[in-house]
Amino acid sequence: MSTPTPDTAAQVSRAMRRFTGLAFAVAALLLAGCKPIEPWVKPYERERLADPIMALERDPVSGAYLDHVFELREGARGAMGSAGGGCGCN
Amino acid sequence: MGAATAVAARRRVAFGTLLAGAVALALAWVAPPATAAVLPEDRADVLYHRYDGGGVVVDGPSVLVRKKVGDKVSVVANYFLDMVSSASIDVLSTASPFTDERTQMSLGVDYLRGKTTYSIGYIDGEESDYLAKTAYFNVSQDMFGDLTTISLGFRRGMNEVFRNVKDPVTGAKQRDPSFQQDMDSRGWSASLTQVLTRDLLGVVAYELVTDEGYLNNPYRQIRYADPTSPRGFSFAPEVYPRTKTSNSASARLKYSLPWWRAAVDGTYRFYTDTWGVQAHTVQLGYTQPAFGNWVFDARYRYYTQNAADFYRDLFPRRNTLNFQGRDKELATYTGNTIGVGASWEFRVGRMPWLEKGTVNLRYDYMMVSYDDFRDVTAGGRAGTEPLYELDASIIQVFVSAWF
Predict the structure, then answer these.
(1) Residues B40-68: pLDDT tens digits?
(2) Nearest to B248 among A23, A61, A77 (CB)
(3) How far is A42 from chain B (nearest CA, A)?
(4) Which position has the higher pLDDT, B161 or A2?
(5) Which of B32, B62, B252 lies nearest to residue A65, judging by beta carbons?
(6) pLDDT (tens digit, 9 = 90+) per residue, A27-77?
(7) Whether domain B40-402 has CATH 2.40.160.40
(8) Contact indicator for B132, A87 with CB cutoff of 8 Å
(9) Rounded distance between C-alpha atoms, residue A70 and residue A86, angstroms
(10) Closest residue of chain B to A37, computed from CA coordinates
(11) Inter-chain contact A73–B366, Cβ cutoff 8 Å?
């Protein structure tokens, strides 16, 4: 095995420092993820959000039907809440 | 610095990274227990639906029942029926009007464990010429003080495509015994729901769906220029690719108005697939409670897409491309749908087990304008017929009960 030149050793050292910094950054992020996040909207402040008119899907049977209608008549599909279950388009 | 020193330094850094990861995992493990998420409410819905547009009438019932079993499990079942009477532009161009039925039954189970909800389910759809079996699995996790919910899902569909033909003797519709094709579908979805402020919810969602197998409609035809035909064109079977992969991503905001009790919401979705279709969807909604026990809704949906790479209204020759389609859902078009709804809430004193009930009426009007799909039934020189337009009425009447 050849002995590394001073330039190579300096490059390895720089790479090590960068990697160590990256490892610390990742560890810091992981550690930050473990700290319980203080909810910025407290449970007692969610009165409006708990109102039935704020439900993302108030009537599932109606929402599923409309998704079905649009999915059959549009080329696009997905990411709007439908669950599939057949073409129904023959 | 020698090679041995460099190796030792690499090992120290690797050990440090592992140690940091282990500490992070350990802290995650001992993080304070979260408050429990909740299962959906027990309810039952009976709905009548009717779609009437473009020569097609589809109506029928849908019944949905959801019930908790103990504190941890909720079961949901749905029965859905489409009764189809079709004299659509496709049918009038190349075939005769027909009637058909499509039934769909589904059963799902949600299991709640701490802040995690696991859902599995099975959907079975049946038509005279199409069988669809779909299984799905979702996992949903509440986190960050219940401000954030992350959901991941997978579904797998196994479908069989048949073709109906008329019995030459009796004229009755029956399956063509020489035609049976498979189509498999897989879908992966992810969504994040976030409480942004005390009045505002946000949702971002992504879904990837990939299909493989027979993706044609076995009846639909392309048309191509044919100088030997009196009309100037003839029809030939469509030829579709046997795979399709689509990506869709959406973002939604729902806001509770600060001035009076009402909610507004808006959604945008971008869609793209390997057939060359790109689509944009915008949905806006407004919900207004009034008179104590009434809730009124207004909705608007805008949809636009460009045509698939192999779509043409009129092909110059019979075999112009390797793949050829003339499905108007693969054309370039724009749709606008406006809708209104009213919901009346009631309680029955003699039925204490009934928490509340609602009677609901919804009406949507859909208008679709095609940029490159022509109405061949209107006559005229091939390729100069008027562009097709579709108007449709969608009615829903349903009763819901919470118990």
Answers:
(1) 999 999 999 999 999 999 999 999 999 99
(2) A77
(3) 8
(4) B161
(5) B62
(6) 666 666 566 667 889 888 999 999 999 999 999 999 999 999 999 999 999
(7) yes
(8) yes
(9) 14
(10) B144
(11) yes
Q: Token pair of A68, please?
A: 């079905």
Domain coordinates in residue numbering, chain A: 1-37, 38-82
Distance from CA of B249 to the nearest CA of A (A): 6
Kindly tell me the burial class for residue B112, based on how many C-beta atoms sit within 10 Å of its own C-beta (0-12, 13-18, 19 or more): buried
CA-nearest residue to B203 within chain A is: A56
- Would an 8 Å CB–CB cutoff place B22 in contact with chain A? no
Would you say B395 and B363 are in contact if contact means Cβ atoms under 8 Å apart? yes
- Residue-level pLDDT at A33: 59
Q: What is the spatial distance between Cα B354 and Cα B349, in angstroms, rounded to a whole number?
A: 9
Which H or E element spans position B13?
A: helix B3-29
Distance from CA of B15 to the nearest CA of A (A): 10
Residue ranges per structural domain of chain B: 1-31, 40-402
Q: Searching chain A, which residue's CA lies closest to the CA of residue B49?
A: A65
Of the candidates B386, B281, B370, B367, the one whose C-alpha atom is nearest the C-alpha of residue B326 is: B370
Are B134 and A84 an interchain contact pair (Cβ–Cβ within 8 Å)? yes
Average of per-residue pLDDT across B220-235: 95
Q: What is the predicted pLDDT for the residue at B90?
A: 84
pLDDT value at position A23?
73
**What is the average pLDDT score of chain B?**
91
